[in-house]
Design brief:
This protein is α/β, with parallel strands linked by helices. The protein contains 5 helices and 36 strands. It has a 10-stranded parallel beta sheet, with no helix packed on it. Strands 8-11-14-17-22-25-28-31-34-36 form a 10-stranded parallel beta sheet, with no helix packed on it. A 9-stranded parallel beta sheet has the order 7-10-13-16-21-24-27-30-33, with no helix packed on it. The longest helix has 20 residues.
Length: about 325
């Protein structure tokens, strides 16, 4: 990454802060032009900016100029965390329950009361936190991190450098039942979950195992908290889904897509690469063309919303009446 530093290179930085809250010893960033007006008033010790904000930033003090300030700031936060919150040396807590047939590579850490079942494989440098469960024949890739109370069920695989936040469940049974004689008969879920490299999964997110084939998350997928991924779903590389979104069974989502918070995708649908779905939208049909899609009834005061909802229910009747009126008008115009 190409960067220009303007100002004293020995300047001491004490904190990283947002632009409007930064103090005289803080480092901040400006990535969106709409906040340019706040830059002149900002008292941060140093600000990361784009080239078009260079002059304003230099007039107010030290700055770092780069083509992508948001990316630069992200890298700075990683450096800051490594420096201020260094990881502890690898350690296996004596209360951890590790089956003798499990394989732990060099540098693995296992927290208190974690359970690693028979045949599990834990890659080099992986960290398994307190109360985690790694099921039979499950695989955790090198340098991946499982936070407290994460479950990776039997036969599931997590790639390298993944981050799984507290309470996530990887590989619970998918919701599969066959109706028979007024009852539901369970369909055993015989697949697993395959997670690629550099995937991040939020707290209390659930990814169900496949019924016959595997549920798959490709490299670089990012899932927020409380996301539900049903059985046999496939999510392409570097797709991101915000909190409380959900994907029903056997849907396929392409690469580099985004699903806004509480957005839902129905089962057996396909979303092409680079499809972006707005928050709270419900996807009811396949989307095969890249773009930004929205589908929800706009919020309004309740009384107005109820009137609009009542009108919406009458649209079909109004459509039929309009078609009939058009036919009657056409007949009248065709008379000699």
């Amino acid at each position: 990454m190409d960067v220009e530093l303007h100002g004293n290179p020995d300047l001491l930085i004490e904190r990283l802060s947002p632009l409007d809250a930064a103090g005289p010893h803080d480092l901040s960033f400006l990535s969106q032009p709409k906040y340019l007006g706040k830059l002149a008033q900002c008292v941060a010790a140093c600000v990361v900016v784009a080239p078009d904000a260079r002059e304003i930033a230099m007039r107010r003090g030290a700055c770092i100029v780069t083509d992508d300030p948001y990316h630069c700031f992200a890298l700075i936060t990683q450096l800051w965390k490594r420096h201020h919150f260094p990881e502890l040396a690898p350690h296996i807590h004596p209360s951890a329950d590790i089956d003798p047939s499990a394989t732990l590579a060099a540098g693995v850490s296992v927290g208190a009361f974690a359970c690693i079942a028979a045949g599990a494989v834990i890659g080099e440098g992986a960290r398994i936190a307190e109360h985690c469960v790694v099921g039979k024949q499950a695989v955790i890739g090198a340098n991946s991190r499982l936070s407290a109370r994460v479950t990776v069920a039997d036969g599931c695989r997590v790639g390298e450098r993944c981050i799984i936040h507290p309470g996530a469940v990887i590989g619970a049974d998918g919701f599969g039942f066959a109706p028979h004689a007024g009852r539901w008969v369970k369909i055993e879920q015989l697949g697993a979950v395959q997670i690629g490299n550099d995937v991040e999964i939020g707290a209390n997110t659930c990814i169900d195992r496949g019924a016959l084939q595997d549920t798959v998350l490709e490299d670089g997928v990012k899932l927020d908290n409380l996301v539900q991924i049903a059985h046999n779903v496939r999510i392409g590389q570097h797709t991101a889904m915000a909190g409380c979104s959900a994907v029903a069974g056997s849907a396929t989502i392409g690469a580099h897509c985004t699903i806004g918070g509480a957005g839902n995708v129905l089962g057996h649908l396909t979303l092409a690469d680079h499809v972006h779905v707005s928050a709270t939208s419900l996807v009811t049909r396949s989307i095969l063309k890249p773009g930004h899609y929205t589908g929800f009834f706009p919020i309004d005061d309740n009384a107005t919303w109820e009137k609009n909802a009542a009108s919406l229910k009458q649209l079909y009747v109004l459509r039929q009446r309009l078609k009939q009126a058009e036919k009657t008008l056409a007949r009248g115009q065709n008379k000699p």
